[in-house]
Structures are given as C-alpha cells and as structure tokens.
Design brief:
The protein is α+β, with helices and mostly antiparallel strands. It is built from twelve helices and 14 strands. The longest helix is centred in the middle third of the chain and has 49 residues.
Amino acid sequence: MTESAIEKNRPAELLKSSLTWGTAIFIINAFLQSIYAIQVCPYVEKLSNIEVVTANLIITFLTITLRYFILNNYFKSHLFKPTSRKLILLDTAFVLTGGILWAIYNGLIHEFPIESGLKILTGFASTGMLTGILLYTIRKVRLFKRTAESSNLPTEQYTSISKDLLTFAVVIIVLVLVNGIFLVVKDLRWMITLEESQLVWATKSVIIEVVFVAIAYSFYIILIASFYSKYLKLQLHNQTNVLDAVSKGILTNSAKILGNDEFTIVAQHTNKMIQQLQVHSEISQSIAYTKNLQNALLPSQLLLKKSFADLFVLYKPRDVVSGDFYWTEKVGDTILLAVADSTGHGIPGAMVSIVCINALNRSVREHHLTSPEKILDKAQELIVESFKCDHSIVRDGMDVSLVALNLKTLSIEWSGAYNPLWVITDTPNPHAHTNIEFSKSNTLSILNADRHSVGYCEKNLSFTKYHMQLKKGDQIYLFTDGYADQFGGKKGKKLKVKKFKEIIASIHNLSKKEQHEYLETTYNSWKGNLDQVDDICIIGVTL
C-alpha cells in the first residue's frame, strides 16, 4: 500500500475502530450504571432490575446511534481533523448526553429529584471522560497494528508521552476528588435525615456505593494503563526491529509513524537515516561498478610482465576509485608506458582518467603516433575536445610521464607533463637535467617534465621529447606526486621528493618485488594513523 493510500484510509480505519470499541464500551457502561442504580439508588427500588437495565440500554443505543452519525460525518468532513483531543471530548460529550437523557427520563417518569439528576450527570461525566481516554488508547494500539510502514510526518503537534501520562493522572485525580466529595456530601446529608435505627443499613449502602465506584474507576484505569502500555510496547518493538535490520544491512524496512509523541520523532529520524543509507548504498554500488570499469581499462600485470622481465606497480587509490592510472601500448618493437595523475581524485578523478586513457589510446591506435611528445600533443587536443563547453572553460586533464622503449635497442624517448622520469644507470647521463651519484657505479639521472599539464592551455604549448640510450640492468621509475606528498612521520609533515629519492637510492639494488614491499611498508609507517592525502602510482622497471 502506498503512503497516499495509507493516509486516505487512515480516517476510515479510525472510524471503524472508534465505532466498534465505542459500542462495546458504551454497552458495558450501561450495565455498570444499571448495577449502580439498582444497588444504591432508593428511587428505583419500585422498579424491577429488567426495567432499569432496559431503560439504560435503550438510552445507550440512542447515544450510540447519535455517535455513529456524528462521527461518520466528522471523519468525512474536510473542516475537522480527527485529533485525539477532539475525539476524547466527543466521546465524553456522547456519554454525558446519555446521562442527560437518563436524568430527564428518571425525573419525568420516576420523579427523581434534581439532586439525583445532578449526581447522574456527575457520574456520566466521569464515565465519559474515562471512556474517551480508554478509546483514545485503544485507537492508538489498533491503528498502529493496521498502519503500514510509513515515513509520513505526524499531522498533530508534538506531545510528549510524559505529558499524556500527566494529563491522564490529573484528569483521574480530579474525577475521583469531585465524585468523592459529591458522594460524601450527598450521603452525609442523606444520613443526617435518617433515624438511628436506619444508620446501619445506610452505612452499608454507602460502603457498597463507595466500593462500587472504586471498582468502576479501577476497571477503567486498568484498561487505560493496559492499552497504553501495549501501545508503548508496540512502538518500542517496531523501532527495535527496524534498527536491528539496519544493523544487519537490511535497508528495505521503515519505522511506522503514528501519533505525536517521542516515538514519532525517533521513527521520523530513523526513516531519514534509512533513506540516507539507501542513497549511500546505491552510491557505493555505483562506485564499486566504476572501480571495475576503471580496473578493466588498466593494463594487466600479465601484459606488463610480457614486456618487462622485472618490474613492480605500486597502485594505491586514495578512495575506491582513482585519478591516477598507468597505461601501456605495444607498437612493433616499441613499448609505450605511462603513469598519469588526472585532475582530482575519487569519482571525479576516475571520470577524468577515463577520458585521458581514451585520448592516449586514440592517439596511438587511430592516429598511429609512437613518439611521446606527439602522443601528448594529440592527447591534449582530444581531451580539450572531450571537455569542450559553450559556457565555461574546463581545465581538467592530466600530469603524465610517458616513455617509449625500443625493446631491441633499449633506447628510450620520453616526454612528461609535470611528472619526471628517473633513470638509474652506472654512469651520469649527459641528456639528464640532474645526475645524483649514489656510488661510483650507480647514478640517478633525472629528466624534468614540461611545466604544463595535458589539457586546456591558453598558449597551446607543445611537449618536449628527450632521448636516452640505456643498457641491460638500467632501471627507470615513473610516478605521480602522491607518495612524496603524503603527510606523516613524527611531526606530521610531507615526505617530499628528497626523501623519496633517498628511499629509491637505498633499495635500487633489490629486486622489484622487494622494492615494492619496501616502498609500501615505508609509506604505511610514514603515514601512520593519518589519512591518505592523494592517489599513488609508481612503476619501477629493470631492463
């Protein structure tokens, strides 16, 4: 059932509940009033028990009929909302109407004095108020059981459970005091007029009256407490079941919203939480699927190992998906290898990376380019075209280090956008921008990249190509800035490029598998409990 259907059917459910239970309780009231009249009212001694009960039932049925027609029109009217307070007052008025009819009937037919008529009205008013409160608690229980799970907000103003209980207590205490005082005063005035020989009988009659009234009050109070307790138990059970399901990852349920107490507010926030969790769950599923798509675009380790005998790939996205990526393509004897850092990270970075991977693929496969600088120039053109927008300039793109290695001659051509190329060889390289000697037999040669990204550029700058001749045993490193930019250590500072060079220098004699393990262990130790700040991608190759 939809929420709109629930709201549409709620007045009908409330009417049905009110009429069914109201009729039953009104009939019970009629019998209690008849027993009370037969036991303690001297003016009906000349009447048989059947006459008293019959008269009470006839008046009660007239009241029930009047109640049916008024409530039926009341619920169908758009001018009135069936709030609990209005329904309690209505039920009190209906019972009091029966008392008025009963007082008029007895005054006209059986010549009851006015004082007895007032006593009847007081009793009926008390009974009516208790009946209204009892029907209020019954409606809460029945409607809660029949209402489907809903996230609708309550239509009534918020009223706390403590206020409900306090109101019930005050009403009952007032009724007990008013009726008690009325009975005591009336009975004392009556007993004063009696002869001494009648006092024993009068005392017994008063005791019976007080006990009967106490039992009647207790009957209503017990029923009210029982149904209200059942309502609270249903509310708590509903909340507990929904939250237990949420704790198990089940987000298909929602808490019932009925009434205007604390449980209503809790249910409202519970449903909001479930809706937010459902959204997060859908987003998580979408991200997981995006990760699968992104991983499918990355070259497999098997493909890389076919081209390189000894290499490692350290790939650590900051989020589930990454803006960093690595890419390779083989054309004849030349293997193209790139490590890139797309604009952003997470989902935005992953979307940009897909555009960049597509641009690299098209540059090689469609435009048949193999020279790194030409590939980057064409990729820049394709990326700008992909992000072309009539209303604004999209500056997204990538920082990249792209090397073309001839597998036979071991000569390399390289171009870069912000990301450098590091080469470890046994002699300083004249083509390198910087040469750092680790020892007499090992030098770190650094090729610096162009200082502009592959993407929108106002000056439409081209990329520079560098050439180096390598030999077997030389090592090359391509990487993004994520590793060096990680905060950590004792002072929570960046690791920085200088520290990264020292790490590479200390492990360059190890196998690539050992280098991978050392780099990851060192990174985790440096980061400690701090969050990863950026995506990380490092590729190391031994020729």
